[in-house]
Structures are given as structure tokens and as C-alpha cells.
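Sample entry follows:

_____
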Amino acid sequence: MKKRMALGFVLFVSLFFACGVVWGLDEIVEKKTFALDEFTLVSGQKISQVKAGYETYGTLSPTKDNVILICHYYSGNSHAAGKYAATDKVPGYWDKIIGPGMPFDTDKYLIVSSDTLCNMNPKDPKVITTGPASINPATGKPYGMSFPMVTIRDFVNLQYKLLQSLGVKKLQAVSGASMGGVQTYEWAVAYPDYVERIIPVIATPKLHGWLLAWLKLWGDPIKLDPKWNHGDYYGQEEPKEGLTYSLMLITLSALWSDWADKSFDRKWADSQKNPSDAFENEFLAEAALHKRAFARTLMADANSMLYLNKANALFDISQGFSSYEEALKSIKAKTLMIGADTDLLFTLPQLRQHAEVFKMAGKTVSLFEIKSQFGHLGGVLDIAQASDAISKCLAE
């Protein structure tokens, strides 16, 4: 039973971290800290002592305009390429396209990748973020749900401050997957004269009702856990049961049926315990999903996930404009949209529809479709399929 469970779990984790890893940036990278004494949100509220972690790959040119910004996905962080130590088992999540001679070529560009506000993994020592789990300087206690509401525009504005601190004059491109793609679109309308190209991956310029419904399902298990206590759980027992089920839903919705069918099929979690004999006897797919999600609670923070849910739900590039069409008029960046054929969250029909609207608005836009067995995660695990399309976009 233990061998089968271990094998199944290894296969499951491999979908996330070690699927055909090809080295791009074969070097050790450093996590750096960007700090501001005060940061003003779109709402007008101010946050003191704001920090965001970031990484850089490559070298800034004398003209300081050879920069590509990478924005991370919902459950990710700024570790997009390379390794922190030679002993690390796997490199950053987009290492297949970042490095010398890769689409995001570190011989030509300086690649910058940063952590967002309210990163969902504040317990990870390699994540540097300010959010509800941070200490409020005014009280000496964690903010909890008193932390101000944040938006995708706030994430982008903080990144802009970071780039200013590095002396960056212009971005050759902004790119990112999922929530990173959402930030990419926001960059195009927030700083149209600063961005030459956008390459949003598995994302649309606004969240549709389908994903809004998923976000509710992702967040509700946390709120239904009595230990959540309206967000006031720091220093006490945390809502790990609710958090685990939220992470199970996130994981399942981000994948495609093939991952379970090929890794587990209908195998039992314990070869001696037939699921037909008792309710507590599980199939391997059930047990592996739960084990993976529970392991992630060691780094994740329940309140931070709720804040990310809200920021994503509010996202629509037409915010601050009279209409979606007016928002499109402000975009000057060349656009390469990348989708995955099995994505259940940002579906290809949605991407095709938005690409057509961009074209009708006179924008320079193209769409590349990844073929993947990994659903939404195809935008991370199978991103190398889009290498030529990315290189072409950067060359135009």
C-alpha cells in the first residue's frame, strides 16, 4: 500500500514540477527585496512598510530598455527560472523559456519577476510579500481581514515602482500565466507608453462569470471552517481543513481528466482496503489529491487566498474606462495571446473571442494554442510549445 501510494503521489507531483524539465537558466539565482515606506492603493488607502520579493535574470543594458517583466500565477511566486541552490530538485516554473538562447533570452534581456501583494504562500521563506498575514505596524499584530482590499492594478502599480527603482526606462514585454496573464493585460492599459508587447498566457482581459463561480468555490471551504473565525486565527489553530479543501478544488479545476486517468485510474489508495467495503476506504486519486493539497497548507495562508480571489474577481481592463472598447483604445502594445486547449478556467473559445475583438479594434494581435493534457496548467508545463511564437513576437 505504501509503495503504491508513494508512486501515485510522485506521479501527481511530477505533473506540477518535473514534467519534461529542460534547463534554460543553468545558474543560481538570488531572491531580492523591494521595500517602500508607504504604498497608496487604487482605493486611496495606504499601506506602510510594504515589501515584495523579486528575482532578475540577465543584465540591464546601458539604455535600460531591454527589460521583460514576468508576472506570476495565482499559487506561484517570483521564482520563474534558475535555482536557489545546486541541490534544488527543480528550477523555476518557466525555466523552459527563460535563459540564454531561450525565447526570453537572458543574453539579450534583463528578466524581472516579482512577488505580488497578498501572495498566498507567506510562510514560504522564499516568498516576500505584504498582505493579511503581515504585521500591521500600527497594532503590532497581523492585519487579518483588516488588510485593505487590493486589486490587480495595485499589483501592477507596485511592480512599476520596483522597475522605477531599478532605473528601467521601458519594457520590451510583459508576460505571465493565469493571474500573471491577468496582470499582463492590466499593464497594457495602466502604462500603455511603457510597454512594447504583452504576452498573456492562459488568461483573458476580464474575468468571466464561469471563473467567478469557481473563485467562490475556491474560497467558501475556508469561510465554512469554524477555525477561520472571520480571519482572526493568527497565533491560534488555523483553518487547515477548509484550506485543504480549497486547495483541492483549485488543483482539480486547474487540471484535465488525463492527469488522474493516467496517474491513478481506479486504483485503490490501499491495496488491502476495497472502497466498496467502507466509506473511509479511498481510491488513489482521492488520497493523492488530498495529500497534495494538505502539504500545500504548510506554506499557504487562508486569508491571503481570499484576498487573491477578490482581486481576481474584480479584474476587468475596462475598470476606470467608460467601456471595454474604450479600454482597448488605450492599448498600444503588440499582443500575443496564448491559450491551452484543455483549459477549464480561461477557455480557448473565450480567448478566441477576445482576440477577435482586439483585431476589430485595430490592435496587433495573434493567438497561439497549446495542446496539453494538463488543462489550465498547460500554460506552465507545456509553455515550450509556444517558444517560436514568443520569439517571433519579441522580434517584431
